[in-house]
Structure formats: structure tokens, C-alpha cells
Amino acid sequence: MSTKKNTSLAIGAFIAGAVLLVFVALIFFSGGRLFAEKDRVIMYFSGSVQGLQVGAPIKLKGVVLGQINDIQIIFQSDDKTIVTAVTADLVMERISSEGSKIDHDFIVNAVANGLRAQLNYQSFLTGLLYVELDFYPDSELKLYELEEDYAEIPTIATSFEEISNRFQELDLKGLVSNVNDLAEQVSAIVGDGQVQKTLTNFNQLIVSLESTSNNLNGEITQMSGQMTQTLSELNTLIGQLNTTTPKIAEALDKSLQELQTSMSNFDDATANVNYLLSDDSILVNQISSTLEDVSRSAQAFRSLSETLEQQPEALLRGRKLTEGD
User: Fold this and answer.
1) pTM for this model (two decimals)
2) Which of 88, 134, 188, 261 is the most buried (most CB within 10 A)?
3) Helix, coil or strand: residue 37
4) pLDDT digits (tens, 9 = 90+) for 61-100
């Protein structure tokens, strides 16, 4: 009987020790989060969440804030869309803002400032996903508001999802049809020999352009020689002008000096003429006396002429006296 009691006590102690070890392990591996205050949030993903499992971590800038505790599919009958609701518990003690306590309103303000959730790979080999939180201020704010009890964090598509959506938006059938039409048109053009004609015309054009280029190069070379000769002649002319101009300027200066001397002599001659022609000059008095003598001679000659006209014989007999004499 005592043996059974001892066995029962041993089994009970073993079970109690095992439970204690499990409890300690839970506390150790949870990092103290087992009894930490948590805040539940919900996220809605419109794309596939394959690889996301319950217990997957949710991180912000690489820091684990919590884990996924539920994944559900929600059918929306209004617009016939399907979304995946992912709920997670966040350990708010791991977030601080200037030493103040973080509460429920922190999530709401963070969402208004661009906080978004995005799926990311834990490992490309396993294909497991986790939820990455980050701030995207320029992203669209889309809230489903299907759950009022939990704070909702908006989601954004991953790069792979965006590429997949772009491929889905492509009209592959129309693209293939256009490619087929283009191939038929190319085949028709090749069959008509238009390509060969075009290549022949293109070769002729190249030959013509090459000939034109050669002619143009020859003309440019000739023009360059003529321009060189012209520039040489122009330099020679400029040199001659530079040599001749001082001589011309010297001769012109000499001529101006001689002209100035002549003008001075002319002024002196003019002054002498003015002196000779003045009223009190000797020449003017002599000329006046001579003119008076000439006037008296003319009067005497006129009187003689009148006498001879009236008495032609006066030259032989002498002049007869008249009653007036």
C-alpha cells in the first residue's frame, strides 16, 4: 500500500514539475508578453494571404509588436468582393512616445499620419509571411470599418501584388491578336518585295549622299583655298595701307600748311589793294586827275569835231568866229 502511495506522489510531483516547466517556458519564449497589456487590431487584405499563419509576427521597423491570432474570409455582398480579415494582438508596452503612455488613440493618430500594414516574406525558401507595419504618408487611406470593437489599420499591396494586378489589367488576348496582325502585315510586305525595293532605294540614297558629300568636300576644299588666298591679299592690302597712310597724312599736312601760307599771302595782297583803293591813297588821286585830263581832252576833241562838221575848211583857213564867240 505504501508503495502505491509513493508511486502516486512521484507521478504527481512529475506532473506538477512538468506543468511548472511549461509555464516557465511560456513566460521565457513569450518574452514577458504573456501577461503584458495588449491591444487588438484588425487588417483587411484584398489579395491572397497564402503563407500567412496564425502566430505569425507583426513588426514595426523590424521590432516584433505582436502576433496574428485569427484569419478569416469575409464576403461583401454589396460589391461582391472578398477580403481577408487578419486580427492581431499588439504589445503596446513596446511603443513609447516621448515617455508618455501609449493608448488606443495612438493607433488612430498613427493611421492618420500614414501607418499602413503590408505582407512581407519571413523567408523566400519557406514562403511564410508576416505583417510589416510602416508609415506611407502619400498612400491612399482605405478603411472597411466592418469591426467597431477593434482599431483598423489600413493595408497596402506588396510590390508583387501590384505587378500581378498590372498583368491582370493587361488585355493579353488583344495583345496577341495585335501581334498576329502585325506579323501578317510584315509577311505581306516581305512577300510583295517592298522591303527589297526599300533596301535598294536606301542603298541608292546612301550612294547619292556619299557622292554629294564628296563633291561638297571638294567644293569646301576649293573655297577654303580661295578664302586663304583672299585673306592673304587682304593682309597685304592692309599692310600697304598701314605703310602708305602715314605718307599720305604727311603730304596732306604739308599741303594744308602751304594752303595756309597762300591764304596768308592773299590776305596781305587784299590789304594792299584795299590801301591802294582807299579815298586818300596817291593812286586813287592820280587816277582821278588823269580821268579829269581825259575828260577835258574829250571835251576839246568833241568841240573840234563839231567845228569841222560845221566848217570843214577850218583846217585850211582857220575857224570863223560866230555870234556867240
Assistant:
1) 0.44
2) 88
3) coil
4) 889 999 999 999 988 766 667 899 999 999 888 877 665 5
Burial class (CB in 10 A: 0-12, 13-18, 19+), 117: buried
Q: Which three cell numbers stand for residue 293?
A: 585830263
Q: What is the largest CA-CA distance in the chain?
A: 233
Cα 286 to Cα 198: distance, rounded to the nearest angstrom: 116
165's enclosing H/E stretch is: helix 159-169
Nearest one of 131, 134, 95 to 114, comparing CA atoms: 134
C-alpha separations of 109 from 96, 140, 152 in Å: 14, 16, 11
CA dist 12 and 49 (Å) reads: 45
Each residue's pLDDT tens digit, 158-206: 766 666 556 556 666 777 777 777 877 777 766 766 667 777 777 788 8
- Name the 3-class secondary structure at 212: helix
Residue 43 CB neighbours (<10 A): 25
State the Cα–Cα distance between residues 121 and 128, nearest whole angstrom: 6
CA distance to 143, 258, 260, 283, per residue, from 265 (Å): 117, 11, 9, 22
User: Which cell numbers in the block locate residue 302?
Assistant: 568833241
Instruction: Pull the grid cell for residue 114.
Output: 500614414
CA neighbor of 121 nearest in space, from 71, 56, 42, 55 = 56
